[in-house]
Amino acid sequence: MSDAVTSPSAPLPAAQAEPAKPSSSAFCFTDPGCRTEVRLGALIILAAVFLWLFFGPTVCSRLYLIGAPLLFIGIPIQAIQARRDGRPGYPWKLGVVLTIGGGLMWPDLRYREVIGGPVYVQEIAPLLLAAGVWIMAWWPVARTRVQSVVTPEQKASA
To answer: DSSP string of 47-115?
Structure first.
């Protein structure tokens, strides 16, 4: 005789099933509610930046030109919807990381083709910095307005 509830191979009834645990978002740079084109554009831009030496500047520049319009269009829409409708998920953490990363990369990616010649900067740093600054520029717009709630007592005293 076996008891179905205590048997390790028997499934638990629906009433006793453990609730699903939310996934950890410790290393997630976009929160739930972030628009798909923003996530996809940021992913393509990051791929273009970090695969620069593997695929070369031509392929990665084309990748960036695919991802940049998605970010260019998606960020203002996300910010306006966050302001107007209270939509969550503005990727401010991604903007901070791209801005800091592009700024810190800039000095390391300088080079000279000829000794004593002009100093050039690989396009990776300015492109990453531009994407981060674009995201951060819309952050003040994305912050939801605080609705002032007037209580009946405040109305009566006014």
So the answer is: HHHHTHHHH-HHHHHHHHHHHHHHHHHHHHHHHHHHHHH------HHHHHHHHHHHHHHHHHTEEESST
Q: Domain range for residue 98?
A: 36-141
Report yes or no on 103 lying in a domain: yes
Tell me the mean pLDDT in the region 1-21: 54
Specify the pLDDT at position 29.
64
| Closest C-alpha among 93, 113, 97, 115 to residue 105 | 97
**pLDDT tens digit string along 81-104?**
999 888 888 888 889 999 999 899
Nearest alpha-carbon partner for 142 in 61, 84, 58: 84
Residue 137 has pLDDT above 90, yes or no: yes
Domain count, the chain: 1
Indicate the SS3 state at residue 32. Answer: coil
Evaluate whether residue 62 is within a structural domain.
yes
119 membership: H or E segment, kind and range: strand 119-121
Q: pTM, whole model, 2 decimals?
A: 0.69
